[in-house]
Here is the input.
Amino acid sequence: MARPSIQISFGTRARTLREARGFSQEAFAAKANLDRGAYGKLERGEVNVGLVTMARIAVALGISLSELVHGFELDRDEINSIPRSRRGPEPIGGRD
Here is the structure.
């Protein structure tokens, strides 16, 4: 199954904000208390991100959660087409 565009959009947003602040993936993952490899997967849209992980990213960026997701356009049909029982990889940073 293709990755949901929301995961790709969130990863792109996280990468853009991280790069704008001059952090490498490794340095940023350490600042956000996240595994660097798992954070790389997040930026590539390969993982479903939990709320706690989103909060860690926002705090590390020095922004609010609402700023982190600002500008997202949600595709209701795409979101509703993802089966409820679909469980992706373990959320990064442990269980959120």
